[in-house]
Amino acid sequence: MSDSKWLRADFIKQLKKNYYMKKYLSKIVLIAFISALSNSCSDTAIDEDSYVNLPASTITEISNETPFVGTQIVLKGTNMQYVSSVTVGTSAFKIIKQSNDNMTVEVPRQIETGPITLTNKYKRVFESTQVIKPQYYTAKVTTWPVNIQKGKPFLLKGENLDLIKEVKLNGKVVSVFGAAAQDKVSYSSAGVEMEIGEYAIIEMTPKTGEKQTSPSILVVKPTNTYLPKQSLMIIDFDAPFTPVNGDATSPFTSNTMTGQYGKGYEVKAASANGWNGIYVKIENNNGGQGYDLSSYNKPHITFLVNTAGGQGYVQPILTANGKTEDRHLTGAFGYGDDYKIKTANWEWRSYDLEKMGFPVVKGKLDKIGIQFRGGNVNGTPFYIAVDQVMITDGPLTPTIGWDCETPAGSTWKILPNSAGLSGYNQGANYASLTGVSQGWDAKLGQASWNVKALDPVAYANGIWINFLLNTGNKEGYFQFDFGQGWMHFTKSQGYGDDYKFVPTQNKWVWRSIKIVPGEGDLSKFDPTKDFTMGIQLYGGNLAKGTAMEVNVDSFIFTTVPLDPNLKPE
Questions:
Q1: Distance of alpha carbon 154 from its chain centroid, rounded?
Q2: Distance CA 536, CA 477 (A)
Q3: Which residue of 154, 398, 558, 563 has the lowest C-beta tally within 10 Å?
Q4: Contacts of 398 (CB under 8 A, 6+ apart)
C-alpha cells in the first residue's frame, strides 16, 4: 500500500472512531440528564421516603406552661420560621411573631389543658412533651335578666362571660345562643320546662371561681316575634305564565325545563350581553287584582336558582302605580352576588325587598316579577335557571331534613317520580309506604334522619317544618318524632287533619307546620343542638282495616311557611 493510500485509510478509520465515540458520549449525557430529571421530580414529590427529610419544627422550651388565657407566651425550638399553626386540641393560638429558633403566640381564651401541636408548611406535625395548663379569669354575672321570655334567649351581663363552664336554667343545662363575648352572653331557653307566670332560676358555673345563682326570675310570654303572613306563589312555571322578550339584541335562548319542583325556567347565551338590554321578563298581576303587602312584616322575594357552575343574572321587578322598578342583587345579602349569580346546584335565595330599595313594598303592587339580563356577566357563557318564585314574609332560611332521594329507613320505599300522582314533588324520587290501619295498636313503618342544629339566631322568629304529602287514592297518617318529643297533626294547624290526614285525592300538596320547642309534647325538644328526626306510620284515627297510602317528599325546616295556600292565623 502506498503511503498516500495508507494515510487515507487511517484518516477514515479515525473519523469512524470519533463518530462512534461522540455517539457513545451523547448517550451517556442523555442518560445522565434523564436520571437527573427523574431524581429532581422525585425530590419534588413528597412521598413517604422524602417526607422524613423535610424539616420538622420542634419545641424545646415554653416560657410559661401555666399562662392566663389571652396572654402571650414564647416558644423556643427549631425551624420555628416554618410553623403555620399552633394548637392545643381544637384551640388555635394567634401567631404574633416568629424566627428560626423562637416564636411568640397568644393563648386563646377558649382552651383546655393539653400539649401544644405545631404544624409547619411542610405538613410536618410535632407534639410537645410539655403540657399547657391554662389559668382562667373568674367569670362573674353582674346583671341577671329581669324576666325570661318563654322559649326565647336570655342575656347575662358581667365580666369574663366567655369563660363560663356551664349554665343551667331550672336545673337543665342550656346552650350558648350565638357567640359569647367577655361582657355579655346569651343562652337559649328552648326545651326548658317552665310556664308563663312561674319563676325560673339560673345557675352559672365558671371555669374557675364560685358558682352563682340568680334570684327568682319571672317567665313571661315571648314578644318581638311575628307570625308570618301568607307566602305568595308568584311563578312556579307549572301554572300558565307569559314570558316577554326584552330589548336585548344579542342571541339567547329561554325555555321551561325540569326544575327542583316540577318545571323551572332557564335562560342561556353563548356570550352574555352585560348591560346591553333585557333578555326576558316574567310578571304576574294576580289576575288583575295585584298584590297587597301592606300588612306584611318583612316582605322578601324568595326563589330557587341554579347556574350549574356557570354564571347568570336575574333581578326582581315590582310595579306600583303604573311604574315598574328593578333592583339589583349584591353582596349585601350574604350570598356573594355581584350583579351576577353563581351556584353549583339549586339554591334557595331570599332578598329583603325594602333593603333592596324599592320605593313601594308594603303597599299595593300592580305586578311582581323577575327579569333576566347579562348584568356583570359580559362576553362569557351565560346560564341561569329559576324555580318557585315567591313572596315570603321574612327570609326562608332553609335547612334540608330529608330530600327523599335516598332511603332513611328500612320500611319506606324510594320510588321514581310517578305520572300517576298529580302535581309535582321535589327531585327525581319520593318516599312511599302502604299498609292497613291498625289504629294506635301498631307502628307500620318508620324513617329517621339526622338534622344539624338550627341556628338560634337565624330561627329566632320561629321554626316551620314543611313537606310534600300525597295519600294517593287512599287515606293515611304518620306522626313526627323529634327524639325529644312527638308531634301530631291536628285541626289547629290549618289543614283539617285530625290524627289522620285529610285525603289529598292523588295530588301532591304542601304541609307547613309551625313547631314550638319547649311547649306541649315538644317541651324537651332543643333544636339548637344536633337532633334525630323521624316519621312513624300509624293508623291513628283511621278505622282499623282501612287501606293506607302515604307518599312524602322534601322535608325542610324554614322560618316562614312554604305552602302558598296556608293562611297562618
A1: 26
A2: 9
A3: 398
A4: 348, 556, 557, 558
Decide yes or no: CATH 2.60.40.10 for domain 140-220. yes
What pLDDT score does 410 carry?
A: 72
Q: What is the pLDDT of residues 103-140, one digit of tens each?
A: 999 999 999 999 999 999 999 999 999 999 999 999 99
Ramachandran class of 44: left when φ > 0, alpha when ψ lies in -120 to 50, beta otherwise? alpha
* Number of Cβ within a 10 Å radius of residue 90: 10
Q: What pairs with residue 131 in β-bridges?
A: 115
Residue 503 CA to residue 37 CA, distance in Å, equals: 74
Q: Is 215 left (phi over 0), alpha (psi -120 to 50) or beta?
A: beta
Let me know if 465 is exposed, middle or buried by CB neighbors in 10 A (0-12, 13-18, 19+).
buried
Query: Do residues 254 and 237 lie in contact, with contact meaning Cβ atoms separated by under 8 Å?
Result: no
Among 176-180, 541-545, 551-555, the range scoring the smallest mean pLDDT is 176-180
d(CA 390, CA 560): 12
Q: In whole numbers, what is the pLDDT of the chain averaged over residues? A: 90
CATH fold of 232-393 reads Jelly Rolls (2.60.120)
% of the chain beyond a pLDDT of 90: 79
Neighbour-count burial for 396-429, b at 16+ CB within 10 Å, e otherwise:
bbbbebbbbeeebbeebeeeebeeebeebbbeeb
Tracing cell 315538644 back to the chain, one arrives at 522
Position 472: which residue type?
G
Q: Are 69 and 137 in contact (CB under 8 A)?
A: yes
Q: CA–CA separation, 456 vs 145, rounded Å? A: 19
Q: Which residue from 151, 77, 69, 65 is spatially nearest to 110, judged by alpha carbons?
A: 69
**Domains 58-132 and 140-220 fall in the same CATH topology:** yes
Helices vs. strands in the chain: H and E counts, helices first: 3, 42
For domain 399-558, give the fold.
Jelly Rolls (2.60.120)
Pairing of β 154-159 and β 140-143: antiparallel
Q: Is the pTM of this model over 0.90?
A: no
Domain 58-132: top CATH class:
mainly beta
Strand order in the sheet with 94-98: 58-62, 72-78, 102-106, 94-98
Query: With contact defined as beta carbons under 8 Å apart, do 446 and 485 qualify?
Result: no
Q: What is the pLDDT of residues 356-384, one digit of tens each?
A: 999 999 999 999 999 999 999 999 999 99
The rounded distance, in Å, linking the Cα atoms of 224 and 241 is 38
Annotated domain spans of the chain: 58-132, 140-220, 232-393, 399-558
**Distance from C-alpha of 309 to C-alpha of 144, rounded to nearest angstrom:** 50
Cβ pair 468, 510 in contact under 8 A: yes
